[in-house]
């Protein structure tokens, strides 16, 4: 039964990995940059919720109402103020700037909050579970987290498919210059894309912070897991990213069931195997989302 | 048509110039002075200088990858760690002389890097960067599982046991100075060669370089393997200096942050840049030591500002008028 349990937990965790990954791949799809600060920004959101809980006594879910819009605003400002400039500086500049940003944020968080591990307090929701069969119970919160992940990813998909702004993003992704000729303001659109990415990563960061412990250095692993979910699933496919997140989550959970030290390693190994045998991912997409 | 056939007699193609001769002279003098230092300075100074030398080697290697090869790696700590662990394993367990173990450890890095490059090269740009980081994490997690390497707590270098500390520190210092000369000189000669020209073309426009007959992937693979060996030398150098290796620090992504900041601040795509960047980074590290982690915040902000405002770094302030280590050719009349 412990195997089934591990797989179920892994699937639920995968929904959250996919949620972090969705923001990473949205930004990459629209402006062809990989935001190396993406993971640290998730941790920043978790610390935001932690401060709100610590000072005002807000429940993490209520804190989301503050953290998500704030992170979206941060994203828009970051894109207009910093990243749009970096885009003009050739291929290396965005990578160097976002990596620099990751180091700056991580060390600033370390100075502000120390290296202690923290966890967001969910109250009674944290321990509530639904018994399925004997010996198998699904936690209410992990289930809620996974459902949130799927709903947000579906919402991003619908947004890209049906709204005018989503169409403009797909057009810019296909051909930036042609889109600009049609009157699409790339600078503003990039700002909106990063705002959406950071809003989703804020949700993911708060859920991850409530699910297990986090510290200022957790940004690196968060970025790596998101990246692995994107590559396993296949670049440019949102549902592929969800599948990638689930595969990664299951690999980690099953690995950890064998030996706690093997959890993360098992995830990396599955990623490397997919990279070696199916470099385009499990669900490759012809259209870049 | 006769005008075209006329040979323009006044054009001169040259590589060097006065600055290059001065640069070569300066390099010889600096190396000679540095070589003499162990006879004048304390052990503490020598240990610190070896730390600076390792920064020069790391910066030069990252510049080779990104500035010349166009590959942004944030996973070179994989090879820094393998170099350090290779030295400890060969010297302490196998019983090889430590000074011989250092180059052998670098060769091990190159041998490991070659197959890994086939995996890493399936990714490009930013995804290549994170991919190299994953590979470094895998190496760290595997090393942490091996009891013969001290698992999570690390291992000590015992191969120097017969040597008096004064001599050991001086020998390690000279070895490190030799490695700096080898690595910087090696990259300089590489960039003056045919391969160097190919790399410059690849960095500027890989598709066009490929269509002109440059073997793009082969050239990049060679650079990746060479940079792995160089980072292995740096890792072995650090361990020979501190006598201790631990998975958490040897495979730390902080090394990548250091390398990137050194190259960006000094000036990417030049031989001189990483050397200047290493000096600046070392000075900042020293003077901001009281600030704890704030120093990485300061250095990070400086690196972001340099990338956006002065992308050619400190050495770029010369606007290419001075080249101590010229790699290209210039044409001019007379």
From TrEMBL, chain A:
GO terms for biological process: amino acid transport. InterPro entries: ABC_transp_permease, BCAA_transport_permease. Its main location: membrane. It is a multi-pass membrane protein. GO terms for molecular function: transmembrane transporter activity. Pfam families: BPD_transp_2 (PF02653). GO terms for cellular component: plasma membrane. PANTHER family: AMINO ACID ABC TRANSPORTER PERMEASE PROTEIN (PTHR11795:SF445), BRANCHED-CHAIN AMINO ACID TRANSPORT SYSTEM PERMEASE PROTEIN LIVH (PTHR11795). Belongs to the binding-protein-dependent transport system permease family. LivHM subfamily. This is Amino acid/amide ABC transporter membrane protein 1, HAAT family (TC 3.A.1.4.-).
Automatic annotation (TrEMBL), chain B:
Pfam families: BPD_transp_2 (PF02653). One of its GO terms (cellular component) is plasma membrane. It is a multi-pass membrane protein. The keyword Membrane applies. The keyword Transmembrane helix applies. Keywords: Cell membrane, Membrane, Transmembrane, Transmembrane helix. The chain crosses the membrane at residues 20-41, 47-66, 78-96, 102-121, 128-151, 171-191, 222-243, 255-282, 294-315. One of its GO terms (molecular function) is branched-chain amino acid transmembrane transporter activity. It is found in: Cell membrane. PANTHER family: ABC TRANSPORTER ATP-BINDING PROTEIN (PTHR30482:SF17), HIGH-AFFINITY BRANCHED-CHAIN AMINO ACID TRANSPORT SYSTEM PERMEASE (PTHR30482). This is Branched-chain amino acid transport system permease protein. It comes from Klenkia brasiliensis.
């Amino acid at each position: 039964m412990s195997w089934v349990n591990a797989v179920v937990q892994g699937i639920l965790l995968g929904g959250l990995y996919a949620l972090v990954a969705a923001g990473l791949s949205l930004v990459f799809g629209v402006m062809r940059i990989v935001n190396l600060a993406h993971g640290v920004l998730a941790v920043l959101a978790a610390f935001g919720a932690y401060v709100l809980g610590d000072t005002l006594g807000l429940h993490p879910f209520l804190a989301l109402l503050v953290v998500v819009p704030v992170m979206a605003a941060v994203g828009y400002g970051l894109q207009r103020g910093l990243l749009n400039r970096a885009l003009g500086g050739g291929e290396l500049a965005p990578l160097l700037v976002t990596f620099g940003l990751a180091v700056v944020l991580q060390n600033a968080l370390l100075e502000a909050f120390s290296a202690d591990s923290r966890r967001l307090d969910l109250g009674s929701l944290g321990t509530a579970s639904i018994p399925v069969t004997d010996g198998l119970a699904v936690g209410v919160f992990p289930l809620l987290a996974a459902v949130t992940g799927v709903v947000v990813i579906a919402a991003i998909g619908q947004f890209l498919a049906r709204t005018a702004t989503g169409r403009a993003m797909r057009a810019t992704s296909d051909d930036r210059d042609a889109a600009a000729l049609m009157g699409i303001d790339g600078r503003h659109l990039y700002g909106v894309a990063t705002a959406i990415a950071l809003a989703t990563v804020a949700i993911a960061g708060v859920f991850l912070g409530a699910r297990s412990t986090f510290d200022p250095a957790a940004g690196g692993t968060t970025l790596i897991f998101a990246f692995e979910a994107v590559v396993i699933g296949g670049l440019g496919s949102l549902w592929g990213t969800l599948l990638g997140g689930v595969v990664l989550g299951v690999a980690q959970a099953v690995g950890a069931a064998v030996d706690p030290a093997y959890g993360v390693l098992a995830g990396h190994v599955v990623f490397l195997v997919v990279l070696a045998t199916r470099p385009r991912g499990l669900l490759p997409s012809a259209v870049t989302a | 048509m006769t005008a075209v056939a006329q040979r323009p007699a006044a054009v001169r193609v040259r590589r060097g110039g006065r600055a290059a001769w001065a640069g070569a002279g300066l390099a010889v003098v600096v190396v000679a002075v540095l070589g003499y230092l162990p006879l004048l300075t304390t052990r503490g100074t020598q240990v610190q200088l070896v730390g600076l030398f390792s920064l020069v080697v790391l910066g030069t290697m990252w510049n080779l990858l990104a500035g010349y090869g166009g590959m942004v790696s944030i996973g070179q700590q994989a090879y820094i760690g393998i170099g350090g662990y290779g030295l400890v394993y060969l010297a302490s367990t196998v019983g090889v002389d430590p000074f011989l173990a250092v180059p052998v450890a670098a060769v091990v890095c190159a041998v490991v890097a070659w197959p890994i490059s086939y995996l890493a090269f399936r990714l490009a740009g930013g995804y290549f960067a994170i991919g190299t980081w994953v590979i470094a994490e895998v190496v760290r997690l595997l090393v942490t599982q091996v009891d013969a390497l001290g698992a999570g707590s690390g291992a000590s270098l015992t191969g120097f046991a017969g040597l008096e500390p004064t001599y050991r520190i001086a020998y390690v210092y000279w070895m490190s100075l030799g490695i700096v000369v080898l690595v910087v000189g090696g990259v300089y000669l590489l960039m003056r060669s045919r391969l160097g020209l190919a790399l410059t073309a690849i960095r500027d426009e890989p598709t066009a370089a490929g269509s002109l007959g440059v073997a793009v992937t082969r050239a990049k693979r060679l650079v990746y393997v060479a940079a792995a060996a160089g980072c292995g030398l740096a890792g072995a150098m650090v361990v020979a200096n501190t006598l201790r290796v631990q998975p958490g620090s040897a495979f730390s992504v902080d090394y990548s942050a250091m390398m990137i900041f050194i190259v960006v601040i000094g000036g990417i795509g030049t031989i001189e840049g990483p050397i200047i960047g290493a000096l600046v980074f070392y000075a900042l590290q020293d003077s901001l030591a009281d600030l704890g982690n704030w120093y990485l915040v300061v250095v990070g902000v400086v690196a972001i500002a340099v990338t956006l405002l002065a992308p050619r770094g400190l050495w770029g302030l010369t606007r290419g008028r001075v080249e101590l280590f010229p790699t290209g050719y210039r044409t001019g009349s007379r």
